Amino acid sequence: MSMQSLSPRTLTEVSHAEISAEERLYFASQWQLVWRKFRRHRLAVGSLYLLGALYFVALTFEFWIPYRPLTQQSDYLDAPPSRIHVRHEDGSWGRPFVYVLEQNIDFETFQRIYTPDTSQPRTIHFWRKGEPYKFWGLVRAERRFIVVAEGGVLLLFGTDSLGRDQFSRTLAAARISLSIGLVGVVIGFVLGCLLGGLSGFMGGWTDIVIQRMIEFLISIPRVPLWMALSAAVPARWSPVRVYLAITIILSVIGWAGLARVVRGKLLELREADYVMAASTAGATEMRIILDHMLPGFMSYLIVHLTLAIPGMIIGETALSFLGLGIRPPAVSWGTLLKEAQNIRALISHPWMMIPGLFVIGTVLLFNFVGDGLRDAADPYK
Amino acid sequence: MSTYIVRRFLYMVVTFFALTIVVFVIIQLPPGDYLDTYLAALEAQGAFADEAELETIRRQFGLGGSPVEQYVRWMWRFLQGDMGRSFEWNQPVKALLAERLPYTVLISVVSLFFTYVVAVPIGIFVATHQYRFSDYFWSVVGFAGLSIPDFMLALLLMYLLFKYFGISVGGLFSQEYATAPWSWARLWDMVTHLVTPVIVIGTAGTAGIMRVMRATLLDELGRQYVVTAHAKGVPHRTLLFRYPVRVAANPIISTVGWQLPAIVSGETIVAIVLSLPTTGPLLFRALLSQDMFMSGSIVMFLAALTLVGTLLSDILLVWIDPRIRFESRSG
Amino acid sequence: MLHPVLEVCDLTAHFHLEEGILKAVDGVSFTLLQNQTLGIVGESGCGKSVTVQSIMGIVTGQPAISGSALFYRDGASTDLLSLDRDSEAHRMIRGQEIAMIFQEPKTAFSPVHTDGFQIMEAIRVHQANTWRDCRARTLDLLRQVGIPNPEVNIDAYPHQLSGGMLQRAMIAMALALHPSILIADEPTTALDVTVQAQILRLMKRLQDELGMSILFITHDLGVIAHMADEVLVMYLGRVVEQADVQTIFKEPQHPYTRALMASIPRVHKSQGYRLQTIKGSVPVALDPPTWCTFAPRCPDFMPGRCDVQEPDLLELSPGHKVRCFLYMAETA
Fold it and tell me: Which residues lie closer than 8 Å to B193 by C-beta, 6 or more apart?
């Protein structure tokens, strides 16, 4: 290390600036080191930004979507994704536009066929005033990101059997699907820390009981249990209560993994030399936990939390997909996928699988971030 | 060694006890008891039950009394093999399970083997070719496999196979064999139908175990005992398989503990999508119609399946790892 | 007249890392004579382990290796460094002609194989014996290195044996095929002092009985005094002093060697004597400068000379070489 900082000028006077650069590395806080190491993971950093963007869109979806998620456009049932054009029939280029669609029925297959009427282009406008809406059902607004000129429809992901725009529904569903992962993990985190911490710190019978509980939850299959519990959620509950119930069901079974990490880390750290040193030096128990032990495993917790979120998202999607989770009128990616359950629907309306790509993409991004964090979690390695 | 196994076995018994309580709660969760549900079902069919019949049912299912009493009675019957009746099918739960559970076990076990048979060799290959193209390739494949929920994969495969090959996957038998007696042809038919569900169920686990294998083996390859064996003049390939791969077997076997529950979970939901004649669709229907003895028993058996599997993997681990095997001897 | 069994000439091993070139071994030469023990001394990180690992073809991290290491056998010589490390020729020498024992006996054995198996294997990979034969010979070997109850302990797993026992087993493993050279890389560092002495005595005894040369690596000067005939002092990948064991201890010339000697605790010194330490710590040999690498820590540092170029390895008297400007006439 020091060989590097020796300059050919003189040996006896090592430049002051170089020393302090090196010292900075020694005195950098753990978080600075973690962040420095994480930044080197290009894929993880990119994924983190994309996830941020995704969450931002979920938070503000009302602005981004062209139609309300529940609006039924009866002229466009089971319509495929719209084609966006930039070149007119006469060969001239222009702003992006769509053609007005004409609906026909194929009397052999009894399926709807939509043909574009090339004489009627409709321009797609951005950042325009459109149909008014309410942010979070509270704040009135009119400006929308996408507004199509009168008479045209922009169906980016097609429509479902009731003529609802799948693109708008997918973005709206992101709010529930993405938040359920976060909320579930937070509940699981509190439970896991509480019980894991209790187990690791108390020892004795408490430890044995909690340990058995953790082992039980880890060693039984989750999906059947999730299904059984969520099937018991009463049908008359409001969407908000159902949402909370599903989140709690997901996290009540999901805390065990986290509790095991907390307990294991606590036991390991209790034996660590620097914790021993702190307690020999007369630090109070609380101080030891907060100042010495918490930083020691905070980074591991964050890694585990990041990697636990995709599990929750998949859990919610699976339950809603089966019709046991989030219920209409609330939309999540799982409820949207419910329409793609049988092979006939899949073949005639393959675009109904698009929400599934969002699930896969989100989980992939979380896995990349988690992987990058795992490498960075121990910056002293 | 035996004390270790006895201890693991006792743990399993305790866990099993906890499981019965959870299942009992599940059965009791829907509002009203079994009788109300039964009456509602009868009424829906336009039939009525007389008081004598109700009394019989009450006795038969041990309804009434405190929850503890009910639990004890239910448990007592369960242990004797009486799992109650499914009112939806109007058959004993036991008979329905006997028909379907074997397929669940079969698909789960085959998926489990598939997972390890594919993941371990790839993991070894990738660890010995670190930072080469194949390493990156498989890590991308692994991430993708980890990130696709199994039911999505089932949907995608179903769509692609039908669209491009005209193959309709689903079920465990072709129509002509569905009710036919067992024959070699029927067995082969089943094997061909097993391929898709096994791949779908096994993908996520394969990706996970591949990563564990790679990481563990990379760890082991750097150990001193590998250098020692090199210095002895042990040929390269012999060394790889005799030492680091052998040592890495232990952490790999202990992954069965979380792999099996994941596979049984995956089997449940994939079976619903691919309409396999296993317990998954049965559980689903039972839950929708609040056929609680049915759903409770299925959850119980599925969990018991993973508990026994975990115990077996623990025993395998003791057998294969001398450090645990001689735990009691060396203190 | 003693024959040379191993002649290393200008050995270098450079690791090309992201951070720069790590010159772990930089131009090391020495000759190991028949039935003699050559000690290589230096602090950790001085390149002594990489030196012997390069010769054995077991160094990890794929450094660029150059130079030659001639191994003499039956009047013929083989350059070990020119052999591909994965080649059959090199493999036949490893374990059979040149054997090695390591610092940490606990980690040097596979945890899931019995020690007996790992010794038997050393025989099996070179000789077409049955496992039964190998077992019989292994029992003899275990007896020879003083392991009690060989019949029981042959089937013991490493975690059931003590460090000292394992080191004996390792010696048995290394000597199974009567190699002409035994390389011992800090074989006693991880052991208790009393066990250390036993192991060293065992090695001396076996050297006399079997007749072999030992390349002994350690940072412990006391062990060197006990074991070696000839001593090589290394610092940051370079040999700084070389002499027979008497000369090194009686008349150390290089400032580094002298500092090492001064840092040995001595019982007979008078009261008020303070143990000497070497100031600073061993730097990493990453992109080392082209002047004397010991200069930053040297008590005899001469500005304008030591930080300008590097001294050559100069022969002061027959067999005694030093790399220091203190003994070089000033040149233009």
Answer: B169, B171, B172, B173, B174
CB contact under 8 A, C288 and A3: yes
State the pTM of this model.
0.84
DSSP string, B4-16: HHHHHHHHHHHHH
H or E element: which one contains C107?
helix C105-108
In this complex, the residue of C86, C110, C126 whose CB is nearest that of residue B225 is C110
Predicted-complex ipTM score = 0.87
Amino acid at B306: T
Backbone angles phi, psi at C304, to 5 degrees: 85, -10
User: What residues contact residue C130 under an 8 Å CB cut-off, 6+ apart?
Assistant: none
C neighbour chains, 3+ CB pairs within 8 Å: A, B
Alpha-carbon distance of C301 to B190, in angstroms, equals 84
**DSSP per residue, C55-86:** HHT--SS--EEEEEEEEEETTEEEEGGGS-TT
Q: Does C102 contact B320 at a Cβ distance shorter than 8 Å? A: no
Measured distance CA(B18)–CA(B307) in Å, rounded:
12
To the nearest whole Å, the CA of C229 is away from the closest chain B CA by: 25
What digits encode the pLDDT tens for the residues B89-143?
778 888 889 989 999 999 999 999 999 999 999 999 999 988 888 888 998 899 8
C310 membership: H or E segment, kind and range: none
pLDDT digits (tens, 9 = 90+) for B62-98: 666 678 888 888 888 888 888 887 877 778 888 889 9
3-state helix, strand, coil in chain C (%, to 5): 35, 25, 40
Q: Let me know: does A151 contact A120? Beta carbons within 8 Å.
A: yes
Burial of residue A18 (number of CB atoms within 10 Å: 0-12, 13-18, 19+):
middle
A318 touches chain B (CB under 8 A): yes
Residue written as tokens 């001396």?
C204
Written as one letter, the residue type at B117 is V
B156, C129, C28: which is closest to A354 by C-alpha?
B156
- Using an 8 Å Cβ cutoff, are A98 and A104 in contact? no
Residue C28 φ then ψ, to 5°: -100, 130
Q: Which of B79, B210, B83 is nearest to B142 (CA)?
A: B210
